[in-house]
Write a structure and sequence with these properties.
- The protein has a single domain, classed as Luciferase-like domain (TIM Barrel), CATH 3.20.20.30.
- About 45% of the residues lie in helices and about 15% in strands.
- The protein has 12 helices and 11 strands.
- Helix 7 links the parallel strand 8 and strand 9.
- Helix 1 packs parallel to helix 2, helix 3 crosses helix 5 and helix 11 packs across helix 12.
Length: about 325
């Protein structure tokens, strides 16, 4: 049975609002939650960017849901510090925290002043960071000198069960690379044929039998026109290619390129519809592909309407 979760977007809402939304989401019937982990939003129109790791403690306390995020150890986050943050939450809330790791985006990572590496270096750095975190969770004293440097680090507060570490992958190449070492797959909705290639690559790389999570972006409102306007205003910057999303350093750069985004460009990236039957049909299709958890991100600002509508019509139909 697929678990359907609520995505809390730190780029779009203040942390206090997001705590209220996950509470409402749990009451409406969402069975899990996840959040973004950004230093800056993708655009000034989104307008927020709270610190995910502070917020997670409040959200875990405020609800009984499990939580995860997509994070990028190696530059903005030293892996020893990230390991400590995750260990503390996992000790307080056993079995309720997972993390998905990716190679990051310049918009978040360039703030350290360090050079922004090419993709293959970022991948190597990511793999090293995961190895460091797992060693620390295992109670080892870690010395490591590679793309990341660690000296005589040891975690004294550790959970009985460390959090699962999933690979955040959009392309088949990244999914296959992570299949052998990650505990599972975290990916995003794409056209079915493309998404199937990502799933097959993950399994081919060693991910057979491991859990797979999916994030689906929708824009639900009282009419298709309002849903489309909200999606364009809030998420038009985010339908760009992964190469651009990874390498542009500032929100203004995304906004400049978004001037060329047209409503048709949202197709395949965001389900824009006021028809809840379309949402049900879409999510059933993704569930049939073998995803254990599907996290729904309503990209416009109408979160309460979305949560209420899904609680009344969509989640019961999917359950």
């Amino acid at each position: 049975m697929t678990i359907f979760g609520y995505h809390a977007s730190h780029e779009q809402f203040a942390p206090s609002e997001l705590v209220r939304y996950v509470r409402l989401g749990e009451e409406a019937g969402f069975g899990a939650a996840m959040c973004s982990d950004h230093f800056m939003p993708w655009s000034d129109a989104q307008g927020q960017s709270g610190f995910a790791w502070s917020w997670l403690g409040a959200a875990l306390q405020a609800t009984s849901l499990s939580y995860g995020m997509v994070t990028a150890p190696g530059q903005r986050y030293h892996p020893a510090i990230l390991a400590q943050a995750a260990a503390t939450l996992a000790e307080m809330f056993p079995g309720r925290l997972w993390m998905s790791v990716g190679s990051g985006e310049a918009i978040n990572e360039h703030i350290t002043g360090d050079p922004w590496p090419v993709k293959h270096v970022r991948n190597d750095r990511l793999k090293e960071s995961v190895e460091v975190m797992r060693a620390l969770w295992a109670g080892e004293t870690v010395d490591h000198h590679g793309y990341v440097r660690v000296q005589e680090a040891r975690l004294y507060t550790r959970p009985e069960q460390p959090p699962a570490v999933l690979i955040a992958a959009i392309s088949p190449q990244t999914a296959e690379w992570g299949g052998v070492w990650a505990d599972g797959l975290m990916t995003v909705a794409q056209p079915p044929e493309t998404l199937r290639q990502v799933i097959d690559a993950f399994r081919r790389g060693g991910g057979g039998g491991k859990p797979m999570y999916l994030q689906v972006k929708v824009s639900y409102a009282e009419s298709d026109e309002i849903a489309l306007a909200g999606a364009m205003e809030q998420w038009g910057t985010n339908v760009l290619t992964s190469r651009l999303l990874a390498d542009l350093p500032m929100p203004a750069h995304y906004e400049d390129i978004a001037h060329y985004v047209r409503p048709a460009d949202l197709e395949g990236a965001v389900l824009v519809s006021a028809d809840l039957d379309r949402h049900i049909e879409c999510l059933r299709g993704y569930a049939s592909m073998g995803f254990e958890r599907i996290y729904i991100h309503n990209v416009n600002r109408g979160q309460e309407r979305f949560i209420d509508a899904y609680g009344q019509a969509v989640l019961p139909a999917l359950g």
